[in-house]
Amino acid sequence: FRALQHQGCQGTEESHAYLIAALKDQSANIRAAAAKWMIHEYAREALQAALGDEDAEVRIQVALALGNLGDKEVLPIVLQAINDKRDDVRRSSILALREIGGEEAVKGLIEALHEESYFNKKLAIESLGSLGDVSAVEPLIEAMEEALDGGYDELQGLIAIALGDLGDKRALPVLEKGLECFSGDGPDVDIEDAIERINQRGQ
Q1: 12-21, 22-31, 132-141, 173-182: range with highest mean pLDDT
Q2: Cα–Cα distance, 33 to 70 (Å, whole number)
Q3: Burial classification of residue 192, based on how many CB atoms lie within 10 Å of its CB (0-12 exposed, 13-18 middle, 19 or more buried)
Q4: d(CA 53, CA 3)
Q5: CB neighbours of 131 closer than 8 A, spacing ≥ 6?
Q6: Residue 50: HSE in the Cβ half-sphere, 13 Å Cα cutoff
Q7: How far apart are alpha carbons 65 and 71 in whole angstroms?
Q8: CB atoms within 10 A of CB 83
């Protein structure tokens, strides 16, 4: 594994030829380690092909590596991976979308708001807030409505933070509705903060 790390750190076309060969090794551990250190553009095509690997750990490392490349050309394959059967692969794909950014990545993250996995949904919410694309406002408002109806307190707080980050006044009605449901400790602190930040931005 140290040899793979060494080749990755060299960052030359020759060193990545070594890693690309390792990405086809019979050992899933070797393939996963090779993907982890494929951090340069030479690796793009090989990584895209490897996202269909039969081993979940390989797919996880490939998705993360594609995210680290930050290349919007890989978005179509990463967007496919957010429908992987494994929660952890989808989570890595969500992380990759956040790293790559852009309109198509935001669309993928909006899709991930419907994740069955709580942790994946949480990551999608946080990512949408950090990317700052206001096209996420309406989907986040819908997610907030669902969280309020379902009594998912922690999700309410996370969505409020993301809406506060986006700073769009369209979010105020649902945030005010959320604030009416609580008193004392809980997501109301995050909701109050989001409302304040949105109002300050509008001044």
Answers
A1: 132-141
A2: 19
A3: middle
A4: 22
A5: 98, 101, 105, 106, 109
A6: 33
A7: 11
A8: 12
